[in-house]
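#struct-pred
JK: can someone run the complex with alpha-D-galactopyranose? inputs below
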Amino acid sequence: MIEKKDNWFFISTENSSYMMRVSPLGHLEHVFYGGYIVPSSYGLDLIRGGEDVRLGDGTYYDEEHQYTFLSGMLLEYSTPGKGDTRESALIAEYDGGLITLDPVYDSYRILECKDYDVLPRVSGEGAETLEITLRDKVLPVFIILRYTAYEAEDVILRSAEIRNSMESELNLRTVSSLMLDLPDPEWELLSYDGAWARERMEHRRKLSPGLTAIDSKLGFTSSEHNSLIILARPETDDSHGEAIAINQIYSGNHQERVEVSPFGLCRVLTSINPFGFGWVLRTGESFRSPETMMSYSASGLDRLSTSFHRFIENHVEKSRYVFRDRPVLINNWEATYFDFTEKKLLELASTAAEAGMELFVLDDGWYGRRSDDTRGLGDWIVNREKLPSGLEGLSGKIHELGMRFGFWVEPEMVSEDSALYETHPEWMVRIPGRRPSPGRHQYLLDLSRSDVTDYLFQTLSSVFSSGIDYVKWDANRNMSDYFTSSPDAGCQGEFFHRYILGLYSLLDRLTTAFPDILFEFCASGGNRFDTAMLAFSPQGWTSDDTDLHERMMIQHGTLRGYPLSSLSNHVTASPNHQNLRKSSIEDRFNVACFGVLGYELNLLNLSSEELAVIKDQVAFYKEHRHTLQHGTFRHLPSSDGAVFWSVESDEEMLVLEYQERNEVNTGRHRMLRIPHADPDSVYRITRREKHIFREDLGDLWPAYSSVAHDTLDLTVSGAVLRTSGIALPPLFMGRGFVPSTRVLGDNGTDLYVLRKI
Ligand code: GLA
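RT: done, structure tokens with the ligand placed:
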């Protein structure tokens, strides 16, 4: 709901309010963002103090307004030069490098829906947009701020457009999509950082005076710092307290700045990273920033995740698979790497089909001269030595097994040793006269050029027409040697953003042309896990690290901002290929099933006992798949060293228990408490029975096999579950077994199913 009253603007969602007003001098002031307040409430004027405080030696607006210090105000979009010395939302140069601008209120519009057209397109169905135009006091430079309110999801989408109506050029250096000025600094900042194979590890820090920046300069969203940030009160946890989540819908260099001013004000800014960025606006031209989503919660962090999950699924994702159950897949990468033949692939596929898997994914190595990772990228033509019957032939044989078929591509890249490079060396990103630096022996194609994206569209269209159901779109290096030869670029600073716009237009064309293909994005694992990529492909490869201990942290961080249905998780081999850690296949499954399940190991090396276990897992997953892919994810209170996750749909709730270490002789029962259980319902709780392998118990095997075999079947009221919780059956901890003893071990898990009766 959006309203304007006098000089005030009100944006309301179901549980949040956002208020602004035009100040007596015309500046757009931020008044409030937080819990819902009825716009007609008495006392709104008292939310902010008046302009009656002097800021010491600060610059005031003019002699007639000696108490107007822009540095002391909460603003909606700030520019430098008129006294606000905090970080600026916009830095734009004119007249040989001048940067002072003074934007004041000009006009507004309220639209049903939204007509902001940037890629990726976020739907405005059911939403309302407030558009406020600011104009510089002297120059015809306009800033159009847009706020789209999604009531049910409690999300406000923000963006800014800069329009140059001067006779001369305006050179953009920094353009923010969101600026949010908060009146106090008592927040902690959560960010999601890491590197390859340890993506989106959650970090939480107290804010202190000065600037904190989270960013990527890798050219892509990056595994180093995701664009998701959360501000939380110090006391806020998963289910209590105030917090604000913010995420740019963007896949390139991004920056999130949080500044605490000397006067205790807190400014948040999201933008394309100013690092190397420039954009030339000629007379009459506009620049549209990417969009940023934000959400406020008064009841903890899980609530924010749910808002973002729903918003992404309902408004960002375009694929027809968004709400469909996603297939359980088998991927051959860690099963074979580059060493495969059609025969080997078909053996793997038929074993997978027997286990109930539904989609066979042929990973890297099927094309051109690709026998290892030093060659072949760019040549998207099947290698007939490896696959004599071509992709169509293989696809036909896989379909005969009752499975769907898809493959891996890495279209943005080229190897020096490739036919594409021989024909079009000028398409590689490189600076004339300098030797470009490789990453994984490969180079980027210049997607800022439309001849390159046109070529890729044609080449990929032909290979996507070979009877396939799925595509894994990978990108395995970061940007270097920044240079664009696009005739459209006004300056080299446009390279990064033009590349990303080229990528979006290519993905847009391909996903529109092939609506029946299920796309999955990947970038050295999770190097480009962002909301914008989800607009084109409803799922992404979360990380190359599939070790379950690491995965608990990676999935935790990823789920803070991205829906369960977007996390592609594979059960892989033990010892794990990234860290050699050993774990039980049952525990690997219990963690991987929170999202979209796949297997990526050589099934042909497994025993018939293990294959039978996998068959049971796949059957269990299919039975609960809708909940596991689309349910509401929450953290439950931890107990006795264990972490608990829940996922809930209308039909059921699944709860994961995870312990990092098995302790000895604790003498306690671990508690399961579910604060959101329905107090008026009675639940039946069962446990997914895990297969215990002989090697899990070694010498103790004979004793166990004759005693500890209880299945779990409990009836508990929601009031008990939410208030006191229940004691779980004992864990094996050093002395003997009783029939209810549970064997978890290190990195051990159990999975419970709760249904209302
Ligand atoms: C990346 C991906 C892997 C696999 C390989 C293939 O590393 O993350 O899943 O596809 O590329 O080269």
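RT: quick notes.
The domain at 329-543 is CATH 3.20.20.70 (TIM Barrel).
The first strand starts at residue 2 and ends at 5.
JK: thanks, will look after standup
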